[in-house]
User: Which sequence fits this backbone?
């Protein structure tokens, strides 16, 4: 593993740690697999919190209500009676609760996953930034890094916002945005 920072130095270890169902079924399939992995590694030598956490979908303005309702219906959410809870602002247009979400300690989970990978023989080069994917005759041959060229046949990219830059080094350009609509 090559990482310009350290374990969890980027978005992997410094995010909110929220895992929520989405309207697209394939994302929920990945979520279920991910939760299985997190549950397995949470029992290992690096413990971390993994707890149920319902999602609250709010429509602040009236013109947001239809989209919030469509999202909630797509993921099995239920409407909340805003008048029944004094914590809700009086001027909200609507609210929905979606069960089945989880929250986790992102840094703990990232560290636990790194330890599990170490135990499986994965080597780490921390403080070593990947610069380019090297390809010859349509095959990956290595990775150009701060420490020089690392020969390899495969590269798994988990670079967050820098994914596009590394893919451009092999002539692959991704769209900058993904538009999803609910109807």
Assistant:
């Amino acid at each position: 593993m090559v990482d310009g920072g350290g374990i969890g130095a980027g978005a992997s270890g410094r995010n909110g740690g929220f895992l929520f169902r989405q309207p697209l079924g394939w994302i929920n399939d990945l979520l279920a697999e991910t939760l299985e992995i997190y549950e397995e590694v949470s029992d290992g030598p690096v413990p971390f919190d993994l707890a149920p956490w319902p999602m609250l979908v709010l429509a602040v303005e009236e013109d947001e209500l239809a989209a919030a309702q469509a999202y909630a219906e797509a993921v099995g959410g239920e409407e909340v009676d805003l008048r029944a809870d004094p914590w809700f602002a009086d001027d909200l247009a609507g609210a929905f609760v979606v069960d089945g979400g989880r929250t986790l300690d992102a840094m703990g989970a990232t560290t636990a996953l790194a330890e599990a990978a170490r135990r499986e023989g994965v080597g780490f080069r921390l403080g070593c930034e990947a610069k380019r994917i090297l390809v010859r005759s349509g095959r990956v041959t290595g990775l150009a890094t701060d420490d020089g060229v690392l020969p390899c046949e495969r590269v798994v990219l988990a670079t967050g916002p820098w994914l596009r830059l590394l893919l451009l080094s092999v002539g692959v350009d991704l769209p900058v945005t993904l538009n999803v609509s609910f109807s």
User: Anything to note?
Assistant: The chain is about 25% helix and 25% strand. The first strand starts at residue 2 and ends at 3.
